[in-house]
Request: fold
Amino acid sequence: MTALTTRLPARFLPVLATVVLFVLTFGAGSIRYDGFASGQVIANLFIDNAFLIVLAAGMTFVILSGGIDLSVGSVVALSTMVTAAGLRAGWPVPLVIIAVLLIGSTLGLVMGVVIHKFDIQPFIVTLAGMFLARGLCFLISVESVSIKDTTFRDVATAVIELPGGVTITYNVVIALVVVLVALYVLHRTRFGRTVYAVGGNEQSALLMGLPTARTKVGVYVISGFCSALGGLLFSLYMLSGYGLHAVGMELDAIAAVVIGGTLLAGGLGYVLGSLAGVLVLGTIQTLISFQGTLSSWWTKIVIGALLLVFIAVQRGMIRGRRRQGAIAS
Amino acid sequence: MKNRLLWPILALIALLLLNLVVTPSFFALRIQDGHLYGGLVDVLKNGAPTLLIAIGMTLVIATRGIDLSVGAVAAIAAAVTCVHIGTSPDVGTALAGMAIALVLCAVLGLWNGFLVAGLGIQPIIATLVLMTAGRGIAMLVTEGQIITVNNDAYRQVGAGFVVLPVSILISLAVLGLVALTTRKTALGMLIEAVGVNPEASRLAGVRSRTIIWTVYVFAAVCAGIAGLMISSNVSAADANSNGLWIEMDAILAVVIGGTSLAGGRYSLTGTLLGSLIIQTLTTTVYTIGVAAEVTLVFKAVVVITVCLIQSPKARAALSFRKVAVS
Amino acid sequence: MTESPPPVVEMRGISLAFPGVKALQDVDFRLFPGEVHALMGENGAGKSTLIKTLTGVHTPDSGSVLLAGESVAFSSPGQAQQAGISTVYQEVNLCANLTVAENILLGREPRKFGGIDFPAMRKRAAEVLARIGVHIDPASVLETHPIAVQQLVAIARAIAVDCRVLVLDEPTSSLDAGEVAELFRIMRVLRDEGVAILFVSHFLDQIYEISDRMTVLRNGTLVGEHLTSELERRELISKMIGRELGTLEAIEDASERHSVSGPVLVRAEGLGRRGAIAPFDLDIRAGEVVGLAGLLGSGRTELARLLFGADRADSGKLIVDGTPLHLRGPRSAIAAGIAFCSEDRKGEGLVADLSIRDNLVLAMQAARGWSRPVSRKVKDSLVEKYLAALDIRPANPDALVRTLSGGNQQKVLLARWLVTEPRLLILDEPTRGIDIGAKAQIQQLVTTLAAEGTAVLFISAELEEVVRIADRIVVLRDRHKIAELDGGSTIDQVVELIAGEPVPEEVAS
Reply:
């Protein structure tokens, strides 16, 4: 049991680092700016990034399994477009929701099957998926389509009041539920553990008799589903559908997952880390907007720098572990 | 090798024939003021930046790498040059601006190479850093504005003609130079050796790091030149849109050309074909009158088709032959 | 061994062809409960293919597989496992990033409310580990344990289900003597419980120690099935390689030991690296074959890597031709005339997707740099020379190295270094995993090279080979150099040194 207590922190270290980073950036903002350290600013972090949290949760599955999904941003755009177009055509809201989720999951399924069955790199397949989804948006409409459906608008503007006068939207609740479900699936189910196994060593997982095929395809279905759900949340947030929505959002999702401490090679990482990663990204944006004189491009530069730091730390950890292993064997 | 290129060639021919059917004048060439015009010339001209970046990308991919930052690097090159030129119409200022930009690109390539070869970070993530931050840097240089210039010397790079458009000549010259260098020296073999097995190459005394470093610098310089072409063609630098997604097009061109993302064997001819396919496709979609944005759908279809055709597993599944699983 | 119980596995008339290769032709195979059955054969004899056919990785073109009398056709290792056939492979095929308990039970874990019941899982894992006498924390992460323990965890996984057949495919190749003894103890326990064990190993000693029965394959065909007690070693070898016994003797006699008293070519003074090998002194003379003996993990490979600059030394110095040499990496070693054939041919030696020609000239080309290519003419003459000299097959310089057999790959790797005309050639396990014919050729080559003045550092796990070939033997134990013996020493002398009192723990770490 001593082994357990001394080793667990090492595995959680990247996540802890992210959480510490979040606390530090947020703390810095609180000291520097009045009104930063309010409950509502925190709540806004969640409100403004709910869709990204959902995307990052899905992306965590894919990256843990050793893959990557470049299509998520485009699937978000496609989802907003289908939602807007569907509502404009007078579809009932539940039908729209089902259609969007089905389209996203199916896209994920197709990409997963192509990746697995035909042994084509995930990078290329999901890149094609990215092009396809965005192209389909424009096939529906080249212009932005606004959402006028009253039910939808009601949900979008509805707020839940928390103690202390802080308000959140339903988006936040959905995003947090997604995180909880992801947490359960990854850590408490065979599927989830197989995701880790496949990411750790796919060949071994196969020889261990684990359902690698189902798992590898499954993560893309999950990511597709999360992208579609994220797209619905984004529709609620923007109240429009547009082919140029969420351009480059896949990079934000990947950045959040990496900053959240998940190893890009797969097999090591946590959903909560990804959540923390999204919050860090969100805080930086908030900080820069509070600052006022800093231009928005600084966000990109800072995110790039953060990525760099976390990658370098991960690299150091892997090296350290290898050295340990070499001596042990 | 020939077999590997068969499908890309067929795909290109099919696309060209489709164009011939839709636009009978597609293959027609005419000379006007000593400049060559025509459908094919347009394809080449519009595809020149992608081809240039794809050439650099081919070598990077051959070493098991990938460079996602080329689009951002192109934007930086354009931004730096245009900011340097400002309102000046001088040839010297233009040349100096371009020189500064390309040197800067080489430095950015060194940075990527440092992350990949020096620190041993996965290329996809190492270059993601610059892909994200690079556009921010480009915007920092232009202060978020679109910088327009009015400089004839600069305009030559992207819009000039020496019988053929200058951009085509530059890209083809670089292609020829690379083909010659890799084939006539041992560079090609060493790049492949590093791509197939980096550790074995190191133990055989190959300067793996130097080679990896070299290809990233080369890719960044190619990206820089491509960025100059793009911005010179419209005499403006837009940090937001210059070279946006061009890394994806370049990677697609390389993959369609039969070079595996897993590294190792590569084909420059394949990359040329891949670039032509992508550009012809874009042109085709435009000429048959579909919204330009929908090109993406066709791109996706072509990519997947070509990849499926090249995948041994898919071929085996199609011919219902048994595969030896080892 | 009575034949009273019916066989638990019976394979009849198995044939399987891959493109261009007939891997198995009409092979019969029986496996009885409660026996350890060794599957013998050279590389390429079809051992792995037969095993993979049994475990559902391959489907045979013809023939039938009977499990407990019933015909079965598995299409995946998972199905075979469910039917009670578990496999442990040479490389530990587990997921190092998961816990020990997950590695043992994932795929058949105890569940509660639809999720995994972790406490029950750890308890069950601890029980399975206890059954084979391994006491580690099931909640610990697998990669924190040494390879040998990981191997035992793999066996625990194999027997965690109702396991009727246990396939052990070269499980001992990365274990030291003590660990092998532990493995054999566990195998005996399982055998006595009635498990049928199929065992593959390249070490004849192990085969004779543990197996009850053996099946010999050659070139994809069945040579015969024998009780171990009834088949002598020499007979077995002759069945495996299909040559007359006289040939083998001739090979053995070919090398003659002699003591070399030429000038010192390479001298190590207090050379060492923390955690790899304690500081050591070593002289290697031109024309001398120095053997390196020791168990796996004794620092053999680590010592060689220091001499070649593959790893950096953190103490001592290396002197070549009387002048100190600061090794910054393999390149400076190569420049000084040192060559190193890694034990890991695939990972650290060959470039599998390049041709024989490219692999042959790689080191030479690397030394010249990319801008001064070796001319086609020089390449061709080198390739021609070494293809013939080392009997590399196929003799097609454009063949990709990936497609060659292990022995031929090893020869290509050797040839790559011979091209550079090294003064010191370091061979790390050059004969491991290759067939006996190629083995003899390589041993012969070492002797010839030494006679021509090349110094050779020869590392091998097979003491017999080291003793036979070396002019001087350096013995390593626990990452220390403990002795040097003359070429005339016997295996017993070396074994005695290796088996001596272990050195104190703190020095080793």
